[in-house]
Specification:
Blueprint (H helix, E strand, L loop, with lengths): L5 H5 L7 H15 L8 H17 L2 H10 L20 H9 L7 H8 L17 E7 L1 H6 L1 E12 L14 E3 L8 E6 L2 E6 L8 E3 L11 E12 L8 E4 L15 E7 L6 E3 L2 E9 H6 L1 E5 L6 E5 L8 E4 L15 E8 L6 H14 L5 H15 L2
Helix pairs in contact: 2-3, 5-6
Length: about 375
């Protein structure tokens, strides 16, 4: 029998974005779900057909192949229902090695691979997904540490069924499609691919009377506020973990974790390198020549910096203990200051005359950099 177009099955156009495809799939999956259509063979067939279509169109690489070659790109591929002929469960090999059929290594196998099978044969519970959140903070906040409240939209336990997925009086039973494994095998040419069961969504069990609010999932999308404590000295791209702040698990499964990635805003004055800070400040020509004291900005107030007489432009100074806070230890890095000698741009007649007189008084002995360059230039020209 000729297969229907996958886009037609999903009810979307060929130019549809992934989010639109995902939304349409969810809507139709609820409509044709066997739990909502008990004993309806046509609905079950539509559900399996829908799962097969989404397996291809919901994957960017498979979708590209389908758009180019159509169903021919997956010739030999089976649907999502049950095991294809000649299929061997890839976990059988591990069971033989670890003795999962009651041998001495049975516990080892179940500990490491039980969850990978979906956990359906146990209670149908699945741990929720971990989430990522990118948080931008200022350099000042990283210096002192701070507290932030973030708002995220995530799957949380359904308050109608307390996360069980079952309505009042509802009971769970072994999934008829995956037989409690939580996974089904799909043929992909010469390969067999194991993927979550489209009927029980990897739980291994179905509910005869699912909760109307969450459709048997045990969780619904909610907006949550989470308080985070940002430690002093945290660096760019650091990762903070908030245990249990991720998505709720399916049918009462444990919650996932939230990983917060820290991004430091660019600062208008300071550059950071580890625990050290760097900045550049202008100093008057007179201060550079005669020496003096200037005020330098830091993240905990201004600091006095002594400028020795004859300081040249681009000279660097280190102010110990005025850098970033060190994570955990509470110590401080250093502040490195690069000075730029500022030359007056507008001179009146009196100022010009004074500088000309000053230049005559200086002579070459007061311009060592110019004298050194002149000598090197003569040597260079003499070699030409």
């Amino acid at each position: 029998m000729t297969k229907r177009d996958y886009y037609e099955i999903l009810g979307v156009s060929r130019t549809a974005q992934q989010e639109e495809i995902k939304k349409s799939y969810r809507k139709l999956a609820v409509k044709y779900h066997p739990d909502k259509n008990p004993g309806d063979a046509a609905a079950e067939a539509s559900f399996k057909e829908l799962a097969e279509a989404y397996d291809v169109i919901g994957n960017a690489e498979k979708r590209a192949a389908y758009d180019r070659y159509g169903h021919a790109a997956f010739q030999g591929a089976g649907g999502g229902g049950g095991r294809p002929a000649g299929f061997h469960d890839p976990f059988d090999l591990f069971r033989e090695v670890f003795g999962a059929q009651g041998g001495p290594g049975a516990g080892v196998f179940e500990q490491f691979f039980g969850q990978a099978q979906g956990g359906g044969q146990q209670s149908g519970k699945q741990r929720g997904s971990d989430l990522r959140y990118d948080l931008e903070i200022t350099l000042e906040e990283a210096f002192t540490g701070c507290e932030k409240e973030i708002e995220i939209s995530k799957l949380d336990a359904c308050d109608e069924c307390d996360g069980s997925g079952a309505a009042a009086g509802g009971k769970s039973k072994t999934c008829s499609l995956c037989h409690g494994r939580g996974q089904v095998a799909v043929a992909r040419g010469f390969f067999q691919v194991v993927q979550p069961c489209p009927q029980c969504h990897g739980a291994g069990q179905t509910i005869d009377k699912p909760c109307k609010k969450c459709h048997g999932e045990g969780c619904v999308e909610k907006t949550s506020q989470i308080n985070l404590k940002i430690p002093a000295g945290i660096e760019h791209a650091s990762r903070l973990r908030s245990v249990g702040a991720g998505e709720a698990g399916v049918r009462g499964g444990g919650k996932g974790d939230l990983y917060v990635i820290i991004h430091l805003q660019e600062h208008p004055i300071f550059k950071r390198d580890g625990m050290n800070l760097y900045c550049q400040i202008p100093i008057p020509f007179v201060v550079a020549a005669l020496g003096g004291e200037v005020q330098v900005p830091s993240l905990n107030g201004s600091v006095a910096l002594k400028i020795p007489a004859g300081t040249q432009s681009a000279s660097s100074f280190r102010l110990k203990g005025h850098g970033m806070t060190m994570l955990q230890s509470g110590g401080k890095g250093d502040l490195h200051v690069r000075v730029e000698v500022e030359v007056p741009t507008k001179l009146n007649a009196e100022q010009r005359a004074a500088l000309e007189k000053f230049s005559q008084l200086c002579g070459e002995e007061n311009t060592p950099l110019h004298r050194s360059f002149t000598e090197r230039l003569k040597d260079f020209l003499g070699q030409l």
